[in-house]
């Protein structure tokens, strides 16, 4: 019993190092950030450049069906560790902005952040606000994967990917995929 308490305390104090060692993530050569990095544009003309300048990062997410209404702040992956806010949803700044491709949002699986995401249903609306516009997406898929299954959030499509921890001791990841409402 005391060994279990000590192990849980160690995980709480040194979560990144212990979880990385348990999952074998230190052995991975390719960083998550590199896998999710935005592709370089093939060509730019004045029409594409002006369209891209009109798009802006997400600032707020609303999921009425599961009572999630939160500001969004930029996030990143540093040394295979996702930066997280305790009170906001994070936008993976190496992913796309709404209206231009795969927007990846992620956050803690806590009641005050994305804890209710597990209750979302296929067909539910997700609204993502930027400084200029509100983008509405419809949930098409919800699935659980392992933390190493990063390929599950990579897509060339215009979509919203919402990602959070799931399961006992966060051993799984919950992924919600939503596409723009027509």
From TrEMBL:
Q: Does the keyword Hydrolase apply?
A: yes
Q: Sorted alphabetically, which keywords does the UniProt record give?
A: Hydrolase
A single MF term (Gene Ontology): hydrolase activity
> Which SUPFAM superfamilies does the protein's record reference?
Sortase (SSF63817)
Its name, as the record gives it, is Sortase
User: Which NCBIfam families does this chain map to?
Assistant: sortase_fam
Q: Where are the transmembrane segments?
A: none
Q: Does the keyword Hydrolase apply?
A: yes
Which Pfam families does the record cross-reference, listed alphabetically? Sortase
Task: State the organism of origin.
Answer: Candidatus Curtissbacteria bacterium RIFCSPHIGHO2_01_FULL_41_11
What domain of life?
Bacteria
């Amino acid at each position: 019993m005391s060994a279990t308490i000590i192990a849980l305390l160690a995980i709480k104090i040194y979560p990144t190092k212990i979880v990385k060692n348990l999952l074998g993530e230190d052995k991975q050569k390719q960083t998550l950030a590199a896998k999710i990095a935005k592709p370089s544009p093939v060509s730019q003309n004045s029409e594409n450049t002006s369209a891209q300048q009109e798009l802006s990062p997400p600032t707020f997410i609303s999921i009425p069906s599961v009572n999630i209404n939160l500001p969004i702040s930029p996030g990143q992956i540093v040394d295979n560790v996702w930066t997280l806010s305790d009170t906001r949803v994070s936008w993976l700044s190496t992913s796309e902005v709404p209206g231009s491709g795969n927007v990846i949002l992620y956050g803690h699986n806590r009641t005050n952040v994305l804890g209710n995401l597990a209750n979302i249903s296929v067909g539910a609306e997700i609204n993502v606000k930027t400084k200029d516009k509100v983008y509405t997406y419809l949930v098409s898929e919800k699935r659980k994967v392992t933390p190493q299954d990063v390929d599950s959030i990579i897509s060339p499509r215009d979509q919203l990917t919402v990602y959070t921890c799931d399961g006992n001791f966060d051993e799984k990841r919950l992924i919600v995929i939503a596409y723009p409402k027509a």
